[in-house]
Write a structure and sequence with these properties.
Number of strands: 18
Helix content: 40-55%
Bound molecules: (S)-3-Hydroxyhexanoyl-CoA
CATH topology of the largest domain: 2-enoyl-CoA Hydratase, Chain A, domain 1
Distance between the termini: 53 Å
Radius of gyration: 28 Å
CATH superfamily of the largest domain: 2-enoyl-CoA Hydratase, Chain A, domain 1
Number of domains: 3
Strand order of the largest sheet: 13-12-11-14-15-16-17-18
Mean pLDDT: 95
Strand content: 5-15%
Largest sheet: 8 strands, mixed
Shape: globular
């Protein structure tokens, strides 16, 4: 490097000459989001790059990542020039090679900046992607028009419609990255740029390139396949249409359409809800008492107790993340069965293309089956996933206390039980907590972390970090029956049973929620889980469900017996309404002296949804959940709540607590069901005309 000279330097953007190459670097922690100051810095740098002293330009970032996108916090606020499109155009218009040097994650607007460059180089660990669809948006600074021109429209469809990132190596194979640079990235990028100058390599402004030749039938087929998984959201199909425009319209027109689509989506309810979900997920990581100074304990080895469905799924989550796991079941047959299911599940994922053979082999190599309880001795964390029974769990935790090494984190995967009572049987309650996974645990992303009275902050942090490593979204909750998710579900379950007896059919009950966008209705869910499961719990708890009991006695145990609340054809999970069930419900109602009536769709939906929200209000009032947005995260990632609705509390705020309280009072009056009466906290919000979010922000219920 002959000459290195700082030209512009402010805390966010700097430019320096390395010989005759202008290196532009942004530094806007944590993720170099392209907020106004960053865009301005880049725009100024593009102007500086016009100087005849500059032969080539390298765009890079300091800190942990290349630009990870537009600054999402700016959406919905008045735009400030220069816009991202202007910045990209300014670099693309330069009559000298511009190279993006990518490390970390070049996402959204970040990748769009890189697509405005002539060439892209990347660190081996880098990823690129256009995840706007996950925020209910589409790339709004040319991504939908430039990426198809670079790698082809069919290849661009997947990353744009699903928003999934692409690792650097794959991106290079696809033609999106020109070179992978080992060692110092900026130095490598400068050398790459110098070579371009020396070789008189052509400039490659994507906006000037012809649209790639595309087999439109193959394109439509690929789009239809991807859109099948879009669950009624608007953004995925808009993204697909924008990509199609890239090959059917001239660049300028495709860009104009992209802008229109972006403005429409960004002001819509779905995107607002999805952006809320994005920040809610990050907010959930902030837990009082678990400050940055608290250090997580190292987890180099884990043990999972119980090789049933939950134990197997939990084992897979961590083995896939590279943590050695010993799965222990004292019954060798159950252990063998569990291991076979684990292998079968992995191979099925491999067959679907979700994992490579090498990845599956590596994950399986991380799992050690054992029938010897003593094998917990060298684990840094033990997760107990045995049958939901307090006496059994207490016995196990006593044994764990005796066998585990000091400092080992002791977690129970209980879905309802009192974690403090479990912790109390050990001599180290500070090391005990709940880690409530959701079935299938290798797939579902939610992890409720149950903080006991005595759980130490570093134990909590350890569980959150290891959970994140295992691909989960951890949410910390307090101790109560059913914690947050299941407790709300129980409140809804009571209304399901009452609505059936009062006159609603299973189809009407389920339909009210699936029409709203829930993945499944409550009765379909019972059929899937097995009606014997609920029956067994009722035997223990004494809870009442005469219809559920009658179905169980008839041998209708749900999907596994091809009959439950619905009928199922061989090999199909599609529920078929059964008049026999309608007759059974009518009979039980008669025996109970309940006069049945027509119940309109609105009442069915509101009693189901608002009873959950009322329970959530109690949960917040008791401090079991730290903030309303945590409840949203729980329902979005663990209970199939529609992403486009932002979670139950976001939804509650959109219809207003005042409306909900009003309706609940009407239903309580009409049915005499006092469980429907708004709880004091909900009633207060209604009276004050405020929302859950505003009240939390004001600090009255916030953590
Ligand atoms: C876009 O680009 C639109 C354009 O096409 C068109 C424009 C015209 N903005 O996730 P982390 C914050 S749309 C603002 O915990 P990680 C985040 O809230 C955007 N803030 O870290 C958190 O703050 P806090 C397309 C953002 O290492 C902190 O950064 N891009 C943004 O686990 C750390 O985040 C995306 O959708 C943002 N864009 O993961 C990418 N991104 O500490 C979104 C992050 O106060 N981002 N923050 O809670 C991600 O996927 C992850 O953050 C990333 C890092 C993978 C980058």
């Amino acid at each position: 490097m002959s000459r290195e000279e700082k030209l512009v330097s402010d805390p966010i953007s700097s430019t320096r000459m390395v010989g005759r190459v202008l290196v532009v670097e942004s530094d806007n922690p944590p993720v170099n989001a392209l907020g106004h100051a960053v865009r301005k810095g880049l725009h100024d740098a593009a102007k500086a790059a016009e100087s005849p002293d500059v032969d080539a330009v390298v765009i890079a970032c300091k800190g942990r990542t290349f630009h990870a996108g537009a600054d999402i916090r700016e959406f919905g606020k008045p735009p400030q020039a220069p816009g991202l499109g202007e910045v990209i155009d300014a670099f693309e218009a330069l009559q000298k090679p511009v190279v993006a040097a990518i490390h970390g994650t070049a996402l959204g607007g970040g990748l769009e900046v890189a697509l405005g460059c002539d060439y892209r180089v990347a660190a081996p660990s880098a990823k690129i992607g256009l995840p706007e669809v996950k925020l209910g948006l589409l790339p709004g600074a040319g991504g939908t028009q430039r990426l198809p021109r670079l790698i082809g429209a069919v290849a661009a469809l997947g990353p744009i419609v699903t928003g999934e990132p692409i690792p650097a190596k794959k991106a290079k194979e696809m033609g999106a990255i020109d070179e992978i640079i080992e060692g110092d990235l900026v130095e490598g990028a400068v050398a790459f740029a110098r070579k371009l100058v020396a070789d008189k390599a052509p400039l490659r402004p994507l906006s000037k390139m012809d649209a790639p030749k595309t087999d439109m039938a193959a394109f439509d087929e690929a789009a239809a396949k991807l859109l099948r998984r879009s669950r009624g959201l608007k953004a995925p199909s808009v993204n697909a249409q924008a990509v199609k425009n890239a090959v059917t319209l001239p660049f300028a027109e495709g860009m104009k359409k992209e802008r229109e689509y972006f403005l429409d989506l960004v002001s819509g309810e779905e995107s607002k809800a999805q952006r809320h979900a994005f920040f809610a997920e990050r907010e959930a990581a902030k837990v009082p008492g678990v400050t940055k100074d608290v250090k997580a304990r190292p987890i180099n080895k884990m043990a999972v107790l119980g090789a049933g469905t939950m134990g197997g799924g939990i084992t897979m989550s961590f083995a896939s993340a590279g943590i050695p796991v010993t799965i222990i079941d004292l019954n060798p047959e159950a252990l063998d069965r569990g291991m076979k299911i684990i292998e079968k599940n992995y191979r099925a994922t491999q067959a679907r293309g979700g994992l490579t053979e090498a990845q599956v082999d590596k994950a399986l190599a991380n799992i050690t089956p054992s029938s010897n309880f003593d094998d917990v001795a060298d684990a840094d964390m033990v997760i107990e996933a045995v049958f939901e029974n307090m006496d059994l769990k207490k016995k196990i935790f006593k044994d764990l206390d005796a066998k585990c090494k000091p400092g080992c984190v002791l977690a129970s995967n209980t879905s309802t039980l009192d974690v403090d009572e479990i912790a109390a049987v050990t001599s180290r309650p500070q090391d005990v907590l709940g880690m409530h996974f959701f079935s299938p645990a290798n797939v579902m992303r939610l992890l409720e972390i149950v903080r006991g009275d005595k759980t130490a902050p570093d134990v909590l942090k350890t569980a959150m970090e290891v959970g994140k490593k295992g691909g989960k979204v951890p949410v910390v909750v307090g101790v109560c029956y059913g914690f947050v998710g299941n407790r709300m579900l129980h409140a809804r379950g009571a209304q399901v049973r009452k609505l059936l007896l009062e006159g609603a059919s299973p189809v009407e009950v389920d339909g009210a929620l699936t029409k709203f966008g829930m993945a499944m209705g409550p009765l379909q869910m019972s059929d899937m889980a097995g009606l014997d499961v609920g029956w067994r719990i009722r035997q223990e708890t004494g809870a009442k469900d005469p219809v559920g009991d009658a179905l169980h006695e008839m041998g209708r145990h749900g999907q596994k017996t091809k009959a439950g609340y619905y009928l199922y054809e061989e090999g199909s999970r599609t529920p078929i309404p059964d008049p026999e069930v309608d007759a059974l419900i009518a009979k039980v109602a008669k025996e109970q002296g309940i006069k049945r009536r027509e119940i309109d769709e609105k009442e069915v939906f509101e009693r189901l949804m608002f009873s959950m929200i009322n329970e959530a209000a109690k949960i917040l009032d008791e401090g079991i959940a730290l903030r309303p947005s945590d409840i949203d995260v729980i329902y979005l990632y663990g209970y199939g709540f529609p992403m486009g609705k932002g979670g139950p509390m976001f939804y509650a705020d959109s219809v207003t607590p005042a409306y909900i309280a009003d309706r609940l009072n009407i239903y309580a009056d009409n049915t005499g069901d006092e469980e429907l009466r708004p709880c004091p906290y909900l009633a207060r919000l209604a009276e004050q005309g405020t929302t859950f979010a505003a009240d939390a922000a004001a600090g009255s219920k916030a953590a």
